[in-house]
Specification:
alpha/beta; globular; 48% helix; five-stranded parallel beta sheet
């Protein structure tokens, strides 16, 4: 065999950002110095959902899960000293993607960059936000328009930029099977390409340029053979769709281009050191097969199920990539799986299943006037499918059919030096940073040219009411010092705001209440408790305060509580503590369950407790679930929370049983069953 030319490594990124733009800039510069070859910007939830940091819904969320960017001044600070013309930047931003791209372009221009040379990606996939991650703002129609306008603008002005990153990552976290992940991502891509083609903004002869800049962002789970075959099926399907549906002749423009973050959902709080080998296996799924290799990879850190990773934890994940790329011989060979009957058969199976589901979804769109995937979103069909798939997966874990090492098997363990001190095993955002962001935002508004900002906003609303491309008006807003919340609320006035279907009502029963089984026992406890309290049914309110849109856990609790005989009140995401308490009082519930994964629990949960007490509600227990460090859990219980559940509490039926016991305790009834020690 002759000497093989070594392939160039994929882009290596770390998803990062926290506290303030200045703090995040320092982190980015350190990561680049360690050999990271691209930036992946995590924005905080107010920025993602179009709120300024001083909005009521932003309280407790500022700088928690990413960096707050409220205006062009923050964007300047974020990239201070980082030459954007030479940097490949990925921005995980969706509903407000046009706004963040405008801020990025303005800062690049201020640096003297040629914007035609800018490289990077805006995620900009709003469909999966309706289905999984929950950072949507506007209704589907206007959201697709924003995406279409961005694509048309970048093709003409920033031709090396990926204006959309079709993101199936969060679909898998919401429960999608490999077939569903392929199918729903491909339906989204088809819907976007159809919208661009039909808008008339891009000449037919330039559609190849549009297709060439569509990228994907996928999830890779620990079943790495299946995940690798999923990527091969993805690549084949994209080749087929772009050639047959859009007539793209250039093979380079049809190339399936994707980045990946391996599966954070599969990381465990129990024995978290096991997450290192999970991350490695998941990375192999998207790197081993050259014909379907990721163009960019970012790995989570071993401790993400515990809280926010420290810089050292992120460095460890970067080094995992570097060892594979630079020490191993992987990049010296062609595709090592070509010719494998096993790989070919599994790939063909996934491809056939995905094509069947795509046909079903697009048929729904055709019946609604060729609206692509949108009718399947609006009807709740897609969300119900994901909730059902997730419920089935959780049921397999609870039964032991799916084995999770350290969780439902092999759970005896030595003490880990990595978690000997849980309070220092993660990074904690300084609460004072939120106040500094608020002060800086106030100063920004005072110092800007207010008249210019208001003129730009008025122009934005005028353009939004027409069919004209919104990018120019958005850039004008960025240059005039408009804030993130002002831009988004101007468009809310024109487009309205959207609450997506929860999928809970349409989800089938996932666990049978077999005689003698755990669910049957909990059902009996629910019925007996309701009878003793003289009510028809026990009522559970499941609430998500703040801006955290990761609703998977809340949905699974709601579905299992329903199956156990509760009447469940679940209004979806993005509620204030005041709204949650009002619903609890109006519905006369017996328990309030709060779900928060953003780290805002210390701010929002005590607020709910205080409002319940002021409303005279003393006998309704409040339980909390989420990624909650041990010290925070103790503080919440001291404040009056009845029980705290974290990812280690994987038995959903057991949790429902515990809720029944808390209701009985609050109402001075004898316990139905002993409380599990793990959730004390």
């Amino acid at each position: 065999m002759g000497e093989q030319k070594r392939d160039r490594p994929w882009l290596m990124r770390t998803y990062a950002g926290h506290s303030t733009a200045k703090d995040s800039n320092a982190l980015y510069r350190r990561n680049l110095a360690k050999g990271q070859t691209g930036l992946s910007v995590a924005f905080d939830l107010p920025t993602q959902t179009g709120y300024d940091s001083d909005h009521i819904l932003a309280r407790g969320e500022v700088g928690r899960v990413g960096v707050p960017v409220g205006h062009v001044g923050d964007m300047r600070a974020l990239f201070d000293g980082i030459p954007l013309e030479q940097t490949n930047t990925s921005m995980t931003i969706n509903a407000t993607a046009m706004w963040l791209l405008a801020l990025y372009q303005v800062v690049a221009e201020e640096q003297g960059a040629d914007i035609a040379k800018l490289t990077g990606t805006t995620q900009n996939d709003i469909v999966k936000e309706y289905l999984s991650r929950g950072t949507h703002v506007f209704p589907p129609g206007p959201s697709v328009r924003l995406i279409t306008d961005m694509i048309a603008y970048t093709v003409g002005n920033i031709p090396k930029w990926n204006p959309i990153n079709i993101c199936s990552y969060h679909l898998q976290e919401a429960g999608a099977t490999p077939v569903q992940e392929i199918a729903y991502a491909m339906c989204t891509a088809i819907s976007v390409l159809d919208a661009v083609r039909d808008s008339g903004q891009v000449p037919a002869e330039r559609m190849g340029e549009v297709v060439a800049r569509i990228s994907f962002f996928v999830n890779a789970g620990v079943r790495f053979v299946e995940e690798m075959c999923k990527m091969r099926a993805f690549a084949r399907l994209w080749e087929k769709v772009t050639l047959e549906r859009y007539g793209i002749e250039d093979p380079k423009q049809r190339r399936f281009r994707y980045g990946v973050q391996v599966n954070s959902l599969g990381l465990t709080e129990a024995q978290p050191e096991n997450n290192v080998q999970r991350i490695v296996l998941e990375m192999l799924a998207v790197t081993l097969s050259k014909d379907a290799r990721a163009r960019a990879v970012q790995l989570p850190a071993w401790n993400e199920a515990l809280g926010l990773p420290r810089p050292w934890d992120q460095q460890w994940s970067l080094r995992i990539q570097q060892v594979l790329a630079y020490e191993s011989d992987l990049l010296e060979y062609g595709d090592i799986f070509n010719g494998s009957e096993v790989i070919e058969a599994k790939t063909a199976e996934l491809l056939a299943g995905a094509e069947a589901e795509i046909a079903k979804v697009l048929e729904m769109g055709a019946k609604a006037g060729n609206r692509g995937i949108i009718p399947a979103v609006e009807s709740g069909y897609l969300k119900a499918n994901l909730v059902a798939s997730h419920a089935a997966r959780r049921a397999r874990i609870e039964s032991g059919e799916d084995k999770i090492v350290g969780v439902n098997c092999f759970d005896t363990t030595e003490e880990s030096p990595l978690t000997a001190d849980l309070d220092t095993a993660i990074m904690v955002v300084d609460p004072a940073s939120e106040q500094s962001v608020l002060r800086a935002l106030e100063a920004w508004r005072e110092q800007r040219d207010e008249a210019a900002a208001q003129r730009a906003l008025a122009e934005l609303k005028e353009v939004a009411a027409t069919d004209a491309n919104l990018m120019a008006a958005t850039l004008a807003c960025a240059r005039a010092g408009v804030t993130t919340g002002e831009w988004a609320f101007a468009l809310r006035e024109v487009f309205g705001e959207y609450r997506a279907p929860t999928g809970v009502g349409g989800a089938p029963v996932a666990v049978a209440a077999e005689p003698g089984g755990e669910l049957a026992a909990v059902r009996a406890a629910v019925a007996a408790t309701a009878e003793e309290l003289g009510t028809g049914k026990l009522r559970l309110l499941v609430g998500k305060p703040g801006l955290d849109g990761h609703s998977n856990g809340a949905e699974q609790i709601a579905v299992r509580a329903r199956d156990a005989g509760f009447e469940v009140v679940y209004q979806g995401i993005r509620l204030t503590p005041e709204q949650i308490v009002s619903a609890a009082v109006a519905e006369d519930v017996h328990c309030v369950g709060l779900s928060i994964l953003s780290g805002a629990h210390c701010e929002l949960v005590p607020d709910v407790l205080q409002r319940l007490r002021r409303a005279g509600v003393e006998d309704v227990p409040v339980i909390v679930g989420g990624i909650i460090p041990a010290a925070d859990g103790e503080a919440l219980r001291a404040a009056g929370v009845a029980a705290v559940f974290t990812p280690k509490d994987f038995g959903i039926t057991t949790i429902i049983g515990r809720i029944v016991d808390e209701i009985r305790l609050a109402n001075k009834l004898q316990p139905w069953s002993p409380a599990p020690a793990t959730t004390s």
